Amino acid sequence: MLGEKYFQLDMSYWGRSRRLVIQILCIWALVAYGLPALVMETNKMNYLGFPLGYYNCAQVIPLFYGALLLVFNHVQEGIEADQMDGKPMVEAASSAALNAVLMKVYVAYTGGFVSFVLFLGFLEAVGVPDQAIGILFVIFTLGMYAAIGIASRTSKSDDFYVAGRNVPPIFNGMATAADWMSGASFVGMAGTLYALGYDGLAYIIGWTGGYVLVSTVIAPYLRRFGSFTVPEFIASRYQGTVQLPGGKVVEVSGVARFLATIVLLSCSFTYLTAQVFSTGVIVSRFIGIQFEVAVFSGLIGVLFCSLLGGMRAVTYTQVAQYVILIIAYTVPAICMSTTQDDGFNKNNPVEFLVYGGTLQAIALREKEMVLLGLASKVTPYLEPKWRRVDFFALTFCLMVGTASLPHVLMRYFTTPSVRSARRSVTWSLGFILVLYMTAPAYAAFAKLEVYTNVIGQPLSVLPQWVFTYGKIGLTSVCGKAVTSVNEAVEACAQATGGDYLLRLKDLKISKDAMVIATPEIAGLPYTIAGLVSAGGLAASLSTADGLLLAISNALSHDIYFRLIDDKASIQKRLLISRVLLVVIALMAAGTAASKPADILSMVAWAFSLAASGNFPALVLGIWWRRANAQGAIAGIICGWGLTLTYLLGTVYGGWELWGGISNVAAAVFGLPVGFAANIIVSLLTAPPPDNVLAMVDSLRDFKVTGEDLTAEELEDIKEKEEALARTQGLQVSNTGEATAEATAEVTAAEASI
Length: 753
Fold this sequence. Notes:
single chain, two-stranded antiparallel sheet, 29 helices, disordered N terminus, Sodium:Solute_Symporter
């Protein structure tokens, strides 16, 4: 038994931490669901020209999440300081030194990229063709990513799988933000808001809100465990035996690992296909090649990074990609923002404070189009069109899905410590908010431009961008993707385009085209349009990098090494991982080339699959000691299986929607079933073995130093951690006072992985 003093420290720490998490989540849920529930009432009030209800959901709630995580980190670190008797916890000197070096490198990189953009602007001014500028953007960015991949190449397992576990929080936050802000966010988010108006804010509320769950409920504990992959944690947490009818006793952790890997593959491959699809859209537009060819050519940059350096190369490439994508996203919005003069703001570059007047102008133009006969009916942009249950169901699924995506969670395996993991989540959300705070403004500016300068205009004066994007099937006029005025006239069955005014229903713009088309819609210089293409490419490739790595690592480490050949050398495992990277990339490209559903829907499916398959097993595995292997297996099969069945049935089988709930929120059915199955089966079967309970206790323990403990207590702690290391097959202890014998044992365990 542990000494009384240590036991009190442990219980006090866990009790206070648990209460803090409950308090934070209650506040989080109240704001996340309370403010949207009151949107109709609060929209009647105005703030800086904004309808208050819309502004609360678009700007206030995401900012509140960030503030909530800052409070959580501060209080949690105070609890940890109490365990240290007020002594500060100091990060490793190597991490601080790396942080300083990376800061200098990426400041220089940012300056170089800005200079490159200015140079291309000069080339445009002196008459260089637009397509040449677009090609230079794509080639430069792909070349930079490939160069980082070559510079970060490695043959070490910890570098390949978890970037050496020494990535500083701020840079891991940037890498996570780039990993997160996929083609769905960069290419599809503003387009979804453009198309759906208020209802599209469910994506912003859900995706940003999920990071509160990541920080409070899951990420710190996975980092403390110290695994390479999410299936690795689930297999180690859910050990147990089952006696077969013939009397044979079998270990079932392999079944849990296999199912967790299947869940990972289902959600990650769907997500990956969406990124490859958006890559094809961007490359085909700005280089002028066929979409199917563009899809495969875009994989070059991805494979350079993933193949050579694994997680290490992907991490530092994603930091570089974040710099590009956030500059590319905010610059056009700022340019459009400075042209606004709505009575509240004039030439204000802070876009998320400016577009209130734009929203009011949209509402007025909607009424005007009906009066002029340009539309028979216009659904108000600022008002909810979905049922509240649909809005809340999608928000909930996106939140839980965010906290369950393997390629996001594995980013927090790369930090130096548990505290760094928590801080990294907060940095991640902060960097993500820069884009998500801009997306509603982006959509509003584009909406007003189209309503004012396209709808109601004669066919003969349609802007060139309508035809440019018609060539790749992203715009249509009168039901046809047109490439010239004559084709538009023919499509609308008019003898002449001079006297026919384009109606609202005549023009269709793909949600996936809105961001890359907006600079052209707003009449900005082509260099800005090329910059946006580079940002969209960075967003798609950064997420594709992380997803490819998550899939290949799971197959090579969790399936091949753990279940097929546990004696495989590290060289052989890395080779298999790299081969799988290529195979999976080609499969995703082939799927994307078939042009499946729009990007955002594909991504939403991935979130529901991850939520129903991973979240119950992860949360109960950390927060409920009684959860066992049989329960986890039942939970994954029932929850994930039901979600997948509903998705396939409604998308491809012609099923009616259950209760009218869209299939993008399919986890609203599978998630509670997964929790219920896990809990019920766990209670009906034997509790977890003692070594698993010891592992759970270790996840909840605060790792105190040995200075305040007796020799007997130190010996008890050492024995507990040695048992845990043997259970996991890798080092999970961060205690510096372990004996030389324990250190040798852990080192041998690492070498065997």
